[in-house]
Write a structure and sequence with these properties.
The chain is of the alpha/beta class and 412 residues long. It has twelve helices and 13 strands. The radius of gyration is 22 Å and the shape is globular.
């Protein structure tokens, strides 16, 4: 392992993104590898939120909707996220949660005119997709007579598409980090008459994205993972410009109205992406998310993706050098993977809990997966080797067998 430690030191010394680590408030003595669940706190965020609270809300009061640009926040922050995901500024809006946005887009996609003789009646996904995606689809289907939810394996899911289908896929799988070829899948599904809705929750800020270049029409994503927007940060919604006029949101709230301040009794959808707004924007959450996105936009994209691949490659080599019994379940090829990596092991849950107690924070996902997320803005190559050492030490020493780390009824 000495060679890997030397390699890590050399890579950190040459890292063009090294300066960004100091822009985050990372606790001393913690190796944080769970940014794929909750991103670290940018140092600028507390001041940004405080100014929103005391300066804008406190002094400006209701005038801040205009004077501080609160009313434009969903579109303004959406336009910034658009730069990260290969979309136009008028194709992304920040609103609600990922689950709510997914409900809105799935409903709108079912109502889109297709090439078939009848309406779209099938929401198709893969088994093992992130649970909330499947749950939202099931809830929508229960409220729409004649609509059903079906699943097919990753290698067969496109072949099961037809003109009656809305295909719901997560671009980067939450457990294994497997990544779909967005352009290829979108083209193949659309050739069969289907509409595709992508979940970018483990993609935005983690892997290169080009929604326009990939032909993507509809997508959702969260703000609290790699974009570092904070717990419960508002989510975003993408709809390609040419499809927007044909979309109808099922949540016809006043902020999505064509003239919300006319206060008319009858709903008329707003222009473009604005029709997917619903209730009053959560301004404090928007402020924190915008701080995270602004920081991310300062970094060089290709350098981020290259560092992500390098961090994971080093970590995998370090784990496998000492614990070959840990089975890699993520793709080795970075072009087929997100910015997290998972290993299966018989003692996975206890080992992860023991690591957390030591200050090495990853997470556990059923069944039996140890998951480690690498955020290139703040993770170092030294973190990768140190985490691999700690994992091997925990398993070598039997520390994972400590009763404190035994599985409880509720797994965190």
């Amino acid at each position: 392992m000495t060679d890997l430690h030397d390699e890590a030191r050399a890579l950190d010394a040459a890292d063009p993104l090294a300066e960004f680590r100091d822009r985050f408030a990372l606790p001393d003595g913690v190796t944080y590898l769970d940014g794929n669940s909750l991103g670290a706190l940018p140092r600028d965020t507390p001041a940004r939120v405080a100014e929103t609270v005391t300066g804008q809300w406190g002094r400006g009061l209701i005038r801040s909707w205009n004077d501080a640009g609160w009313i434009e926040a969903p579109a303004r922050v959406g336009a910034k996220i658009a730069r990260l995901i290969g979309a136009g500024a008028d194709e992304v809006v920040v609103a609600d949660s990922t689950s709510v946005n997914l409900f809105k887009l799935l409903s709108a996609a079912l109502d889109l005119d297709g090439p078939g003789d009848g309406p779209r009646r099938v929401i198709l996904s893969e088994p093992g997709n992130f649970p909330t995606d499947l749950y939202v689809a099931q809830g929508l289907a229960a409220a729409r007579p004649g609509v059903s939810v079906r699943t097919a394996s990753r290698d067969q899911v496109v072949e099961q598409c037809g003109p009656d289908t809305v295909l719901l896929l997560t671009h980067v799988h939450y457990r294994t980090a497997e990544r779909f070829d967005m352009a290829a899948v979108t083209a193949a599904a659309r050739a069969r008459g289907a509409v595709v809705v992508w979940d970018l929750s483990h993609s935005a800020g983690a892997v290169p994205l080009d929604l326009n270049g990939s032909g993507a029409e509809l997508a959702v994503g969260c703000g609290y993972k790699y974009l570092n927007g904070g717990p419960g940060a508002p989510a975003f919604l993408y709809a390609a410009r040419d499809v927007q006029p044909r979309l109808r949101s099922p949540l016809t709230g006043w902020m999505g109205h064509a003239a919300p301040f006319a206060f008319g009794d009858d709903y008329a959808p707003g222009e473009g992406i604005a029709r997917f707004l619903c209730g009053t924007p959560p301004i404090l959450g928007m402020a924190a998310l915008e701080a995270g996105v602004d920081l991310f936009l300062e970094a060089d994209g290709p350098a981020l993706w290259a560092k992500s691949a390098g961090l994971i490659d080093l970590f995998v080599r370090a784990v496998e050098a000492r614990r070959p019994d840990a089975r890699l379940i993520s793709p080795r090829d970075p072009a087929m993977r997100g910015s997290h990596v998972s290993f299966e092991h018989p003692h996975a849950h206890a080992a992860v809990q023991a690591l957390i107690a030591l200050g090495v924070i990853g997470d556990y996902r059923e069944p039996g997966a140890m998951r480690f997320g690498f955020a290139p803005l703040y993770n170092r190559y030294a973190d990768a080797v140190a985490a691999a050492d700690a994992l091997a030490d925990v398993l070598d020493s039997g520390a994972h067998a400590d009763p404190r780390f035994a599985r409880r009824a509720a797994v965190t």
